[in-house]
Amino acid sequence: MQISDYTLGFRKPEKYVYKSKKGLSKKIVEEISWFKNEPEWMKKFRLQALEIFHRQPLPNYENELSKVNFDDLYYYIKPLDKKAASWEDLPSEIRDTYDRIGIPEAEKKFLGGINAQYESEVVYKSIKEQISKKGVIFLDMDSALQEYPDLVKSYLGTIVNPNDNKFAALNSAVWSGGSFIYVPKGVKVELPLQAYFRINAPKMGQFERTLIIVEEGSFVHYVEGCTAPVYTSSSLHAAVVEIFVKKGARVRYTTVQNWSKNVYNLVTKRMHIDEEGIGEWVDGNLGSKLTMKYPSVYLAGRKAHGEILSLAYAENGQHQDNGARAIHFASETSSKITSKSVSKGGRTTYRGLVRILPDANKSKTKTTCNALMIGKNSRSDTYPAIDIRVSDVQAEHEATVSKIGEEQLFYLASRGIERNQAETLIVNGFIEPIVKELPFEYAVELNRLIQLKMEKAVG
Amino acid sequence: MSLKIKNLSVSLGKISILRDINLIIKSGEIHVLMGPNGSGKSTLAQALIGYKNYKLNNENYELKIDGKNINKLQTDERAREGLFLAFQNPVSVTGVSVADLLRSACQYNDKFKKFSIWEFNKQILKKAQILGIPQDFLKRDVNESFSGGEKKKLEMLQALMLKPKYAIFDEVDTGLDMDALKKIAESIIYLKNQGTGILLITHYSLLLKLVKPKFVHILLKGRIIKSDGYKLAMEVEKKGYANF
Predict the structure, then answer these.
(1) pLDDT (tens digit, 9 = 90+) per residue, A213-251?
(2) Which among A113, A224, A417, B240 is placed 20 to 30 Å from A68, CA to CA?
């Protein structure tokens, strides 16, 4: 047994208060809304989204999604009847789960607050006093809806409309959990805020919804990481993240996903950035069967800057279909996209879109895509789209595909280094520019995961 | 204690490159292999470390380190047995720093097993100083945009760290200024005094004047056609290879 299988492949017995029936219907959506005691407008929002979901076709790049049976999934599971207030209040079973993925250590050193999601519901949150004193709101989305309904209503669904794509519609209809962050004007949140997500029940969908609003001149770094137990039936994860970066504000959103290899991970992430604001996505994808994720920046105000750094690793049986979108609406906006992918017997795809609209004169954009392939049966494709509708811009695109060279392996071998380790050294070196952007503990964990993966033979 | 090469014949595809090479290098000896371009010097160096694309033709071929046959071993295994090759044109390895390379290469070395990272780094810095390598060099990617001289110094730095039983230096003196050449020569002598058996491949007598090897071999068209003492190198310098 591989160590990685052991540490990441465990599974806890299920313990639920409520579990919806399998499948998706108007009745189930109404039930979810009723169960959560939501305002009428949210119920309507959900039901409209459900209609859109039924209407919308699957994003059919390769027909890989045809195996998802939407009627064979649970759309809402409530694991506990009340939320735990502190770490000690959590049931030992759940605490044990978090211990194994190392959350307490992480919290001690780095966290500003934990907002950990166990199945569909946020069960544990601890917000450090100083951030709430500054007026920062950090809640799970369900609580935010209850406590700040007007704030939620004025932003939710405005940048990722249910019409956007089938999975955004699905999420809008059945969302549960996720994080809500509001940072008032002029507040800089020094420590990264973190949340962990886990799928712990077979055939269960997870549809968290995250909304982050950062007012003028403020800053927040949100970190989201997930590992998941291994199951035999396919799971679906369809999340939506909406972020609003106001004038001169800066937001960084970091994700490391390591879903088990049966999960379909379909996430819509978008940032709306106002004048002189900075928005950054750092996105690491190691797990899942299929991930389709294209973090976007909408550069809406003059001199807005968006940056997307992504990393993908695909083994046998995995397809990482990742990318980035930068839409320049205003003048002097800039975007920078850096994508690195490693395929070791799996498949990686870069799908990018850079669009510079007529008002976005004097804008700049740069895309760099590097793919590294190891062994046979690896595949990597790049589909960059650049659509420029104004003349006064500067656009760069650079793409490379490389194989780990025999010459380099021979050189390292001549120093006594075994082939596996030599490959790991090269891969770690290749992804280093992305890894160094991660919080320290994530960087260590990621390097360790890559090492474990590299030790396995090409399947 | 010796590196023993017996009946080594090498071809690449259908082209025969080396024929019946026999050589014994004892611990603490410096041997020099000289020969015109294309005589097979680098092929010999790479064949000894186990380059896979070469075909070995002679069934009676032997390659022994201190009596242990290593001719069936892979490159990394040969290296761990104590054989080292300083490449003439070492490749760059993007993303892997010099320090990473040294740490990975030295992990098998018993000497370093009890060292903490801090002590290990101190060792690297000590050796780097001998070669006049600045500290920031260690953070750079291996051979990535290195000058010719820097590449040679990195090869030598690895040799100094690993202290191999037997080391082959393939044109480690090419393209060096006088200061660098002296440091390389000092390093070779240091290794020799530590008991490393050395095979130097070179075109130039300058390095030879500094290290004073006792054994000189002339390689011509894939064969060692003459072996003698230091004076043979002087002879080559005066008259070239035309007389052999």
Answers:
(1) 999 999 999 988 755 444 435 588 899 999 999 999 999
(2) A224
